[in-house]
């Protein structure tokens, strides 16, 4: 956690911005940190948690600008805050009891899975939970709570994030998974030791729906293999966060994810219609429970501009760290040292526009070599673990680089990488994800 000093802040003068808030049992303090300065906060007495992670007593925690969160208490607490907020208010109506009840059911299933024979692949499998719902229904937040509560109990659930727009494991444009071994830090977020990451390269699945599906399948297959050799992870199960796109193709992609990951608990946040549609189609798959849950009134809505900004901050955070604590390296390579590929060949003609029997010319999962030119400027490229170009789609990625200059005359490319030295592979994947360093 980002701990501050333990001492008091603000002098004895009137400039002090310290404020104390007393929270009654089962209520929460909802906070949006101001745009310009961080906020310090500590638990003075009682017990409280932030999205499932308990606060340590009395220690000041630093929350960066713009962070939106809630401090919830089951039995009552006093909180002290120091700094400016965009908003802060207390709410005593929350869906937390229903959320923790879900956790209790999942916990029971994990214990049963652990107790059963590892040879029985059906019953030794813990719950595979998928969280679905419209944008800004609190999917990521609920996923985080379920993971943190499970980790607090000693489980090691796998977090799978299929949200390429606002995912919380790594930069946008990716689908990823990582085991959660400790309650998630309310400031630092998901630990990034060894996430399993596949690069899709765009912030919306409509750019290449086929590719999105193929990558979801790759990720699911990889986790399945990991579960086979690890009874503890298998019993702990997984929590899958999804995108907020729930209509049309978005709905098809949800069903595809539910089936590909063999989810057996579908949590639907705040949408009656989606819940009944899913119940209807999944009723022939008897082992799937579809559960409707209330959306929290605290979830903050974000418009397209705010989402775009959040994506940009995520990329910045990847290279520079949450509080500028990382030092990325600027490197120069020859054009001939790097091999850049994109997946999918240009716009695809609709099947209906083609003669009967003819296949569309552009295969959405074709790996196409890209000439290095100034079009690469400001793109974020993934460094693939592939050993051959035809392994690019089926390979996860080691990390990302950001192209800062392309010198056509000298045939040199300048890029920012998280560390110095050679890249772990010369195969790079491009999409449409750009970033303007500010
Ligand atoms: N109870 C709460 N109080 C204050 N802020 C909250 C609360 N619950 C969620 N938030 C904040 O609201 C924002 C949106 O929530 P969240 O990311 O969970 O929604 P989502 O449904 O996953 O969004 P998306 O559609 O982008 O995937 C986040 O910044 C989150 O921290």
UniProtKB/TrEMBL annotation:
GO terms for cellular component: mRNA cleavage factor complex. ATP binds at residues 28, 68, 136-141. This is Protein CLP1 homolog. Required for endonucleolytic cleavage during polyadenylation-dependent pre-mRNA 3'-end formation. Residues 22-113 form the Clp1 N-terminal domain. Residues 133-321 form the Clp1 P-loop domain. Residues 326-437 form the Clp1 C-terminal domain. It is found in: Nucleus. Residues 110-139 are annotated as: Disordered. Belongs to the Clp1 family. Clp1 subfamily. Keywords: ATP-binding, mRNA processing, Nucleotide-binding, Nucleus. GO terms for biological process: mRNA 3'-end processing; tRNA splicing, via endonucleolytic cleavage and ligation. GO terms for molecular function: ATP binding; polynucleotide 5'-hydroxyl-kinase activity. Residues 116-127 have a biased composition (Low complexity). Signal peptide: none annotated.
């Amino acid at each position: 956690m980002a701990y501050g000093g333990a001492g008091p802040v603000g002098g004895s003068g009137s400039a002090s911005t310290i404020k104390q808030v007393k929270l009654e049992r089962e209520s929460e303090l909802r906070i949006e940190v101001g745009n310009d300065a961080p906020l310090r906060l500590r638990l003075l007495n009682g017990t409280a948690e932030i999205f499932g992670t308990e606060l340590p007593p009395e220690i000041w925690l630093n929350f960066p600008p713009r962070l939106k969160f809630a401090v919830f208490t089951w039995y009552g607490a006093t909180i002290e805050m120091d700094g400016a907020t965009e908003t802060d208010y207390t709410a005593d109506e929350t869906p937390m009891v229903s959320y923790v009840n879900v956790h209790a059911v999942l916990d029971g299933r994990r214990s049963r899975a652990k107790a059963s024979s590892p040879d029985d692949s059906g019953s030794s499998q813990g719950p595979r939970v998928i969280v679905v719902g419209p944008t800004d229904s609190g999917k990521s937040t609920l996923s985080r709570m379920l993971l943190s509560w499970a980790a607090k109990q000693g489980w090691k659930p796998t977090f799978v994030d299929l949200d390429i727009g606002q995912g919380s494991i790594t930069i946008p444009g990716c689908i990823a998974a990582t085991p959660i071994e400790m309650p998630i830090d309310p400031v630092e977020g998901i630990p990034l030791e060894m996430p399993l990451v596949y690069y899709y390269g765009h912030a919306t699945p409509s750019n290449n729906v086929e590719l999105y599906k193929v990558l979801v399948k790759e990720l699911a297959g990889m986790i399945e293999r990991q579960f086979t050799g690890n009874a503890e992870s298998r019993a702990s199960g997984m929590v899958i966060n999804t995108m907020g796109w729930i209509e049309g193709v978005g709905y098809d992609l949800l069903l595809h994810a539910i089936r590909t990951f063999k989810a057996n608990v579908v949590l639907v946040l705040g949408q009656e219609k989606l819940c009944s549609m899913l119940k209807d189609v999944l009723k022939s798959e008897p082992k799937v429970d579809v559960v409707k849950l209330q959306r929290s009134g605290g979830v903050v809505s974000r418009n397209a501009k705010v989402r775009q900004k959040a994506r940009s901050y995520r990329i910045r955070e990847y290279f520079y760290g949450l509080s500028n604590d990382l030092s990325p390296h600027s490197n120069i390579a020859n054009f001939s040292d790097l091999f850049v590929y994109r997946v999918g060949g240009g716009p695809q003609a609709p099947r209906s526009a083609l003669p009967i029997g003819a296949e569309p010319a552009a295969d959405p999962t074709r790996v196409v070599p890209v000439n290095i030119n100034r079009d690469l400027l400001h793109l974020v490229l993934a460094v693939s673990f592939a050993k051959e170009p035809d392994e690019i789609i089926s390979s996860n990625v080691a990390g990302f680089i950001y192209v800062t200059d392309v010198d056509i005359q000298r045939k040199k490319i300048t890029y920012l990488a998280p560390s110095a030295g050679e890249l772990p592979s010369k195969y790079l994947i491009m999409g449409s994800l750009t970033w303007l360093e500010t």
